[in-house]
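Patatin-like phospholipase/acyl hydrolase, Anaerobacterium chartisolvens. Tokens?
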Amino acid sequence: MYKIICFDGGGIKGALTAKMLEMLNNVIPGMLKNVSMYAGTSTGGIISLGLALGITPDNIVQLYAENGQEIFDPYYKFEIQRIDNGIGAPKYNNVKLKKLLEDNFKDNPPLKDLPCNILINTFSLNLDGFSWYPVQLTNFPGSPYLDVTTVDAALRTSAAPVYFPSYQGFIDGGVFANNPSIGALCNALDPEKANADMNSVRLLSFGTGFNPSCIKHDVKWGAAEWLNPMGNPPIPLLSILMDGVMEVDDYNCRQILGEDKYCRANIRLDKSFSMDNWKDVDYLIECAESFPLKNPQEWDRIVSWISRNF
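Tokens:
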């Protein structure tokens, strides 16, 4: 059986994903044994790389809880307060994130040395000047990214425009695939990559919570409004691009694999969360902790599917 676990992007909301995984792993202790591929985008890429390196889910939760403020600091809800940087600069630098990854990704091995297949979405700006293009950092034989280190892969996939500077000529893979599931499935079935049989594939997909965001009336917005950091959600255009593709990829995987081979684990949130507000971490973790009580049928469905397939 070819087992895939995928993790969506979502910034600090990865804390919810990690807590959900920790809870499921406590109920089904063997679910992370013999995983064939981890796939992730942005914060989900960091989780995927951490798991491939042997970091436990509870330790990943701890990383979010203890370091969110360091990564997203100072957090300004209102961009006008950020006069010192000006609107022409990213909200944060990646210095503290890089240090955190170097401290926790033991020995910082290249992707080729990971014990399982990996797929990390990022987007190349192409510093050579020809054309930008989407990139899947994988460690399948023949991949041009075998020597990319785990820290560099994590920083490439999480370099979200507006929030962080580009890294080594790459930006956040969420600009084309915030949900990595369909890409992971295609790589699994590709004869030149995993070459897995369709019937052997089992795909577990984790979201970072479904944000109840909407625009309740027709708008005549320009760039300033669509990219407004004070909007609800902040930077509406970026949120729409990332949220929309996640739902489409969920539908595509469900139709291709069916309910017996595919499971989506995602929590419907009661309010909208910014991807960079570290102050939400405790509440996001609480959302995951309360999920089995508030949604027992959905929790039982997920647990039952994992028990049968992982």
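The first strand starts at residue 2 and ends at 7.
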